[in-house]
Amino acid sequence: MGRVGRFHKRGFLMEKQNITLSLPREVLKKGKMLAAKKGVSLNELVRELLQMTAENEEGYRISSDRQIKRMREGIPLGTKGKISWQRDELHQR
């Protein structure tokens, strides 16, 4: 295991752990250039991108679960579950 440390994110104290990544040289080079352009370390850039990705995934999952629940419950159409028309009546011209 790598070293364990702590850092603050949005007012919370979070434990951190070092990891080893293998990246293609060109990706690493572009990452370093992007980090320098943003004025952050490559480590911070990777951490922020991973955090944003994880938060987006969680938000998507929550939203998806909410929509699936709504579909299962159905939408009240004011018919109280009774259909008072025939399909052919709807398509008459």
How much is the radius of gyration in Å? 26 Å
Widest sheet: strand ordering? 1-2
Helical coverage, percent range:
40-55%
Number of strands: 2
Write a concise synopsis of the structure shown.
With 93 residues, the chain is of the alpha+beta class. A two-stranded antiparallel ribbon has the order 1-2. Helix 1 crosses helix 2.
How does this structure look, described?
- The termini are far apart.
- It is elongated, with a radius of gyration of 26 Å.
- It has a domain at 39-74.
- A two-stranded antiparallel ribbon has the order 1-2.
- It is an alpha+beta fold and 93 residues long.
- The longest helix has 32 residues, at 42-73.
- The model has no long low-confidence stretch (mean pLDDT 85).
- Helices cover 54% and strands 13% of the residues.
- The protein is built from 3 helices and 2 strands.
What characteristics describe this protein?
two-stranded antiparallel sheet; elongated; 93 residues; alpha+beta
Q: How are the SSEs placed, and which strands pair?
A:
Blueprint: E1 4-9, E2 12-17, H1 25-38, H2 42-73, H3 87-90
